[in-house]
Fold this sequence. Notes:
Order of helices and strands: EHEEHE
Largest sheet: 4 strands, antiparallel
Distance between the termini: 16 Å
Oligomer: single chain
Amino acid sequence: MAYGIVHHFPGGTKEQYEASIAAVHPGPDQLPDGQIFHAAGPSSGGWTVMAVHDSQESWERFRDDILLPAMRKGIAGGFTSMPEETTVDVYKVLP
């Protein structure tokens, strides 16, 4: 079952997003293994990132092996705090 994640970074900016995504994605316009959707943009009071993985396990692998270690180490120019997180058991994904 697909699994969705919404991260809101209060006070986050486009520049912080660009630095952060460059540190955790495999390359420009490339998604990590298992991720099937990615969108991001400014939102009320900060920056929001939305992702859908092909499974909860895929998300947890990316989170535990790539995302969290990079954020804990610190990403130059990236987000400076952990996001507010919402997760979703995705019922339907359309192309």
